Amino acid sequence: MSFGPKPWHQTNWDFRAAFNFMFGSAGAGLLVVVAFSGVAGGALQAEILLGMALIGAGLISVWFEIGRPLRAMNVGFNPFTSWMTRESFAAGLVFALGLAAVWLASQPLAQAVALAALVFAYCQGRILQGAKGIPAWRVPALTWLIFTTALAEGAGLFVALTALFDTPARGALGYFSLALIARALAWSIYRSGAAKITVPAALAALDRSGKILIQFGTLAPLALLLVGWFAPEVARIVVLLAGIAALATGWQFKFVLITRAAYNQGFALPRLPVRGTR
Amino acid sequence: MNAPDKAAPLATSGKRATYCYQCVAGPDLLTVKVEDGVATEVEPNFGACSVHPGGGKVCVKAYGLIQKTYNPNRVLTPMRRTNPKKGRNEDPGFVPISWDEALDTIAAKLRAVREAGLLDESGYPKVAANFGGGGTPQSYMGTFPAFLAAWGPVDMGFGSGQGVKCTHSEHLYGEFWHRAFTVCPDTPMCNYVISCGANVEASGGVVGVWRHANARERGMKRVQVEPHLSVTGACSAEWVPIKPKTDPAFLYALIHVMLHEAARERLDLEFLKQHSNSPYLVGANGYFLRDAATKKPLLWDLKRNAAVAFDTPDCDPALEGSFACDAVEIGPDAEVLAQGRLEGSPSFARLVEHVRPYSPEWAADICDVPAKTMRRIANEYLDHAQVGATIEIEGKTMPYRPVSVSLGKTVNNGWGGFECVWARTLLAVLVGGLEVPGGTLGTTVRLNRPLAERLESVTPGPDGFMHYPMNPTDRENWSQRPNIRNAYRTMVPLAANGPWSQALGPTHFSWMFQKETPKGLPTVTLPEVWFVYRTNPAISFWDTKGVSATMARFPFVVAMAYTRDETNHMADILLPDATDLESLQLIRIGGSKYIEQFWEHEGYALRQPVVAAQGEARDFTDIATELARRTGLLEDYNASINRGSAGVPLKGESWDFSLNPAQAHGRDEIWDAVCKAASAELSGGKEVHDLAWWKENGLATKPFAHADWYLFPTLVAQGLRFELPYQERLYRIGKELGKRLHEQDMNWWDEQLAEYQVLPKWKDFPGLWEKSLISMGGKTQDFPFWLLTSRSMQYSWGNNVGIQMIHEVADNVAGHRGVIINTGTAEKFGIADGDKVTIATPQHSVEARAVLRQGIRPDTLLLIGQFSHWATPYAKDFGVPSMNSLVPMSMALTDATGSGADVVRVSLKRMGGAK
Amino acid sequence: MTRWAMVADLRRCVGCQTCTASCKQANATPPDVQWRRVLDMEVGEYPEVKRVFVPVGCMHCEDPPCMHVCPSTATKKRPDGIVTIDYDLCIGCSYCAVACPYQARYKTDRASFAYGKATAQETQAFDPKRLAVATKCTFCVDRIDAGLAKGLTPGIDPEATPACVNSCITQTLSFGDVEDPNSNVSQLLAENQTFRMHEELGTGPGFYYIWDKKDREEVL
User: Fold this and answer.
1) The domain B79-161+507-575: what is its CATH number?
2) What is the per-residue pLDDT for B134?
3) For labelling alongside B325, which of B271, B289, B547, B587 has CA 20 to 30 A away?
4) ipTM at complex level
C-alpha cells in the first residue's frame, strides 16, 4: 500500500461505482428525452422501463461494492446533507413514478418521471463534486458535465433506439445535437477547472478521455447528423452510429473519471519546519 | 533508593512493568497490558518518566514485542537436525525432540570436549559463542554468562557485525583518548553540532531522539555531512552532501581554518596548555623530548624560559616555537634515539605545520564540498564555542563549550576512521570542548574496567596521560600466540584486554582465516561447539555468502532459536528460549551509556514474564542451570552467579544472598537472590526487596550526579592530560608491533602498521575501495556508484525482521522497499520509481526495486538495513537486498584496528534495459 | 465548550513511526490499516532538498466533508469536535473515504491478520463490527471519555490521552482542548507558528502543525 505523500489513485471506488454513473445517468437521460419526445404507448412503456432498468443496474452494481449490502437502506438516513441519500430518494421517485407511468402508459406521468430523472442526474453530479478528497471530482463544473452527459447519453440512446425502427424526428435530433454541444461546453469549462487542481497524471487521463469525448463523442456524431441531414437514405444508420458514439464516449469518460483520473489530494506543506536555526 | 512513582499502574491493574533492550540505545522501560492471560498493549512505563532521560518513552521496536510473542513462525520445541549435510541449499530436516534429549546431547558433547582439553591444537578455545546486538543479548540470556564463566575459555571473537558494522575506530581510540566507547555531544547544552554521518535520529534510541528534539526546538544548529539525506540529515538545519569516505579531508579543512585563518585567541589556549599534550616538546625523531633522569616529557616554560617536566607547577608552556634543551628522545623498545642538547618544538607547533596543506580549497575537490561551505562551518563552530565561558553544575565549576562533532558508522570505522576520530577529538580539544558541559563526551567504557563506572576507570598512566590497558607490544610480553582466533591481543594493541576486547578485535579474521591462516599465526580452526544467540552473522556480517559457507562447516552448532533463520539453518540443535515478554532478568540501568543515555539516576530494572511462555520455550536461566548441571559445572556456575555474573554480586558489605553452590536453583530463586542483592546495593544495605517487590515495582534507582557525565573534572583532579593532539604513544606502539611481527616474518600487516602515526596524514581513502574494485577485476568507470547503507530505527539490532507490524510501519520510511537512487541519476539510466534494478560488483550482484529520491548524491546508492533473508519466515519474502552480499571481506580493506567499513563500488542497471 | 485537537510539532518529528505502531496496537487495527501514520516527504531538488516527517490521520475537522456526504449518518461530529463513526449504521459505501482530503479512512472487507491466521492477541482484539465499514482515528475517544469520567485531563494524564501522543518519543504530538486558553495545546498555538493541512479546502482541521516559533513580539 502506498501512502503518498504525493497523490495516489483512490482505491475506494472501482468499476462498480463507475457503472452506477455510467448506467444511471444514461438511464436518467433517456427518461428525460422519452418524456418529451412524443413517444407513446408501448414504445413509451418500453423506453421508460429501459431507463429505469439502467438506473437500477447502476444501483445494483454499486450495491455489490458497498461493504454492508444488507444495510443498504441506511443510505436514506441523511437527506439533509448527503447527495448520495438524495440520489437514492430521486431514484426511488423515478421508480415509483416510472412504474405508474408504465402501468398507465401516461405521458404526464412520464414527464414527472423525467423531472425526477433530472434530479437524479443532478444528484450524481453532486455526489462526485462532494468528494472533496478527489480533486478531479470536486471541480464545481463537474456537476454540469455529469448532468449534460446524462442528457447527451440519454438522447444518444434514444435516437439510436429510434433509428433501429424509424427515422428519428428532427426535434429529437435537434435536442440530441444541443445536448452534445452542451456537454462539450461543460467539458471545456470542467477541464480548465480541473487543470488548476489535479495532478499531471490525473489531467493526462482526463485529457485522453476528453479528447475521445470531443472527437468521437461530439464532433463525429454532429458530423454524422449532418450527413444524415443531407443524405436521408443513410440517415438511420448514421443516427444510430451517432447515438452510440455519444453514449459510449460518455461512458468511457465516466469510467476514466472514476477509475483512472481519481487521484486523491495527497499532502502538501505550505511551510517547512525550522530545524534548529532558521 | 527511589521506587517508581506511585501513580504507576503495574501488575495489579493488569499492566506489568518490564524493559525492552533490543538495541544498544536501550533499555526502554515499559508496561504491558495483559487481558485474560494475553498480552495486548505495550505502553511507556509512565511511572518511570521522572527518572528516565527520554521521558520514559519507548522505542517503536518495543511495540513489536507482542507480535513477537505470538508469531506463529516461532520455534517452540527443541529440534534436532537430521540432515548431516549443511549449506544454504540443504534442508536441515529439523525434527522436534524433548528438552531432555536436547540438553543431554549438548551436555554429552561438552563433556567430551572438556575431557579432551578446552583448547585445540592451535591453542584456540574449542567452544565458541556468538551474541549479536552490541551486547544487548546479555540482557536476555539470564545466567548463561555464569555458565560460560564456569566453562573456561570461550572464543567470543567470531564477528557477526562488529568491526564492519560498528563504530570501531571510535570505540578503540575513543576509549583511549577519553574513556569513550562511543561519543556524542552534550546535547542538552550544546548549541552547534557538526555531524559527519552520525544518524542519531535513527540509532540514538528514545533518549538520543528525545534530547535532539529538545535541542532543535531550543535552537541548536546541526550540520549534517553525509552522502545521503538520512533521517538525521532531514532533522538537521543544513545538509552537506559529501563524497563518501572523504570526511577526514573535510574535518582537516576545518582544523586548517582554525589553526591558519582564525586568530589564536579564538582557541582555548589554556586548555591546550594545561589539559592536552600540545606543549610537549617533540624531537627530531618524532618522539617527546624527555628529562634524562625522570624520563618525563618536557615542555618549554615561558615564565622560566627553560624546559621543564610536563607536571611542573606554575608554568606557562609555549605552544609554538623551537627550543633547545638537555633531553633524551626514546623510541620503541625503550631505545634511546638521541640525547644531550636537543632541539624540539611543541607538539602543537607540529600540528600547525601538519595541517598547513589541508586548506578548504584543497579539500573542496576531494569532498565535492565548496571551500566556502567548509570555511563557514569552521567559523560557525568557533563562533559558538564560547571559549572562556564556565558553568556550574552541582557545585562544580566547569568550562562550558557548546560545540561538538559527531561521527557516524562508515565514517568512524575502517580506513579513514582513525583520521576522523582524531580530527573530531582534536576539534573538541582546540576549543577546550572535550568532556566538558556542552561539548563532546564519551558515554561509557567497554574496554576499560570497571565496566559500570566510567570515571573510576581513570587512573594515572605514563607521561601525564590516563592509563590504558593496551595489549603489550614489548618483546617480553607481546602475545605471539593468540588466545582466540581473531588474534586481537596479537595484532591490535588498542583492542586492549578488557571485558569486550574479544569482540573488538578484527573479528572477521575468525571467518576469513578459515580458508588460509596468514604466516605467523597458529592455524585458525573450526570451533567444536558453537553457541549462537540473538545473532545472525549469515545476514549481518560482510561477505555473507562466504560466512554462510564457513559456518556450514562448523561441526556442532547450538542455536537458541526464536524462529528459523539463516544462521540456525546450519545448527545441529535448536533450543527455544522464552522471549522478551516471557522470561525473567534484572539488569543495571542508568548512569551514562551509549548512544546518548545520560541519566541523573542509576539502579536496576526487572524484565518479568508478562505472559506464559509459548509452547515449550524455556527461560534462559533454566537452560543455563540445566546445562551446568548436566555438564558437571554446577558449583562453578553457582559460584559465578554469587560473584556477580548475573549483574550484581550476591554478597555485599552487610548482606549475603549467596546461593548454595552445590545445588541447582530454579529461575525465581536465583533472581530473587539477585533482586535482594541489587536492592541492598542500591540502598547501602538498608533495604532488601525480593522478586515479588521488583515485579510489582519494575525498577528502583538512586541519584546519579549530572556532573559525573563529564570526565574533565576527574582528569583535573588526578592531574592528567588528554593525550592529544600528538600520538607519540601510538606511534611507538606501532613501531614495536611492527618489530614483533617482522621478527616472526609476518609482513602481511604492514599497510595497517602505517596507520600508527604521530599526526595522521590524509590518504586517498576512497581510492582504497577503488583499488579493491580493481583487484576484483573491475574498472572504476564500469562501477561508478558508491553503495552505502543506513540504519533503520525500526529494525536495527532488533532481531525483528519476522514481525509483520514492524515491517508495515518501517515501510512508511523511504528506502525500506528497495535501493535509494538519486532521481536525476535514475533518469539518466532510464530507471523509473519501482523499476527492478541490478546492483553489482565484479563478483556478486543483487536485485532491488528502485526508490527514487532527491536526497542522495548522484554517485551514491543506498540500501537501508540488512535484509536479503532466505530462511527467516516472513522476512524471506521481502525481496529487498542487503549490501552485505556485495561487500568483500579482505585484508586490504582492514584498518589497523581491525575494522572495515560499509562501502563498496557497484554498477547499476535497469533489469530489462533502460526505458 | 471543549474542542479536542492535536498539535504536531514538525520541528521535532523524526518519522520513527512509534505513534503508528502504538496506534495499531492500542486500536488493534488489521495489517495495512494505519489510523495514525507518519509521512516521509521530500521537498525540492538535489542538492536543495528538505525531508520532512508529517504525522497524519483523521483531522477531526470542524466542517468534516466525510460527515456531510455520509448517507447513513454513521459519521457524526461530537460537540467536543471528535468525528466518530457508528459501525452499526455504516453501509461501507466509502463515500466518506473519497470525500476526505486527508486519506484518513479505511475499509477492510474481510478479516485479515498479521500472519494469515489470527494470533491470540488478534483473536482477543478482533471486532467483527469493524469489517466492511469505514474506520479511522478516533482520537482514542474511549480513553478520553473514560479519563474524563475519572476526572483526568486528556493530553495531560496518560490514561486519558490518545495512544499516539503517549507513545511519541519526540514530544511531537500534543493533545488537548484548544478552547481552553490555558491548555497545553493552546499555549503551543500561542507561542508557535502553525498551519493546518489543506486549509484552503475549508474543512477546519482539528490538527495543527507547528513549523516555527513565533517571534517574541508576536507572542506578546
Assistant:
1) 3.40.50.740
2) 85
3) B271
4) 0.98
Predicted confidence (pLDDT) at residue B725 exceeds the cutoff of 80: yes
Cβ–Cβ below 8 Å for A3 and C34: yes
My answer on whether omega of the bond before B450 falls inside 30° of 0, hence cis, is: yes
Judge whether A3 is closer than 8 Å to chain C, CB to CB: yes
Tell me the chain B residues in contact with residue A201 when contact means C-beta distances shorter than 8 Å: none
pLDDT tens for B635-657 read: 999 999 999 999 999 999 999 99
Query: Does the pLDDT value for residue B2 go beyond 60?
Result: no
Mutation pick from B216, B807, B816 vs chain A, by most beta carbons of A within 10 Å, is B216
Q: Per CATH, which fold does B764-910 belong to? A: Barwin-like endoglucanases (2.40.40)
Spatial CB neighbours of A230, under 8 Å, sequence gap ≥ 6: none
Return d(Cα C148, Cα C157) in angstroms, integer: 10
Query: Rounded to whole angstroms, how far apart are CA atoms B861 and B589?
Result: 38
Asked if B725 contacts B255 with a C-beta cutoff of 8 angstroms, the reply is no
pLDDT digits (tens, 9 = 90+) for A153-182: 999 999 999 999 999 999 999 999 999 999
Kindly list the structural domains of chain A, giving each domain's residue range(s) and its CATH number in brackets, ordered by start: 15-259 (1.20.1630.10)
Which residue of A3, A275, A277 is in closest CB contact with B235?
A275
Residue boundaries of the structural domains of chain C: 4-219
Residues of A in contact with B221 (CB under 8 A): 276-277
Q: Model confidence at B7, in pLDDT bands (50, 70, 90)?
A: very low
Q: With beta carbons less than 8 A apart as the criterion, state whether B700 and B423 touch.
A: no
Cell of B660: 548454595
State how far residue B570 is from chain C, nearest Cα, in angstroms.
25
pTM for the model stands at: 0.96
Of B63, B235, B822, the CB nearest to C18: B63
Q: How confident is the model at residue C219 (pLDDT cuts 50, 70, 90)?
A: low
Which residues sit opposite B703 in a β-bridge?
B601
What is the CB-side half-sphere exposure of residue C93 using CA atoms within 13 A?
Answer: 36
Q: Using one digit for the tens of pLDDT, what is the confidence trace for C162-205?
A: 999 999 999 999 999 999 999 999 999 999 999 999 999 999 99
Sheet holding B403-407, edge to edge: B238-240, B221-225, B192-196, B403-407
Give the residue among B507, B503, B461, B407 at the shortest CA–CA distance from B180.
Answer: B407
What DSSP string runs through B209-275?
HHHHHHHHHHT-EEEEE-SB--HHHHTSSEEE-PPTT-HHHHHHHHHHHHHHTS-GGGS-HHHHHHH
What distance in Å separates the CA atoms of residue B262 and residue C116, rounded to the nearest whole number? 65
Domain at C4-219, CATH from 3.40.190.100, 3.30.70.20, 3.40.50.280, 3.40.50.620:
3.30.70.20
Q: Where are the domains of chain B?
A: 11-74+580-707, 79-161+507-575, 168-447+726-743, 764-910
> Counting beta carbons within 10 angstroms of the beta carbon of residue A208, is it exposed (0 to 12), middle (13 to 18) or buried (19 or more)?
middle
Q: What does residue C130 show for φ and ψ, rounded to 5 degrees?
A: -85, -5
A278 → chain B, closest CA residue: B237
Q: How confident is the model at residue A119 (pLDDT cuts 50, 70, 90)?
A: very high
User: In this predicted model, what pLDDT tens digit does every residue of B521-539 receive, in sequence order?
Assistant: 999 999 999 999 999 999 9
Q: In what order do the strands lie in the sheet with B15-20?
A: B15-20, B28-35, B38-44
B397, exposed or middle or buried, with CB in 10 Å at 0-12, 13-18, 19+? exposed
Check: CATH 3.40.50.410 for B168-447+726-743? no
Verify cis geometry, omega within 30 degrees of 0, for the bond prior to B595.
Answer: yes
Average pLDDT (B355-377) is 98
Pairing of strands B396-399, B390-393: antiparallel
Question: B574: closest CA among B89, B13, B102?
Answer: B102
- Whether residue C20 and residue B809 make contact (CB cut-off 8 A), yes or no, is yes
pLDDT of res. B913: 84
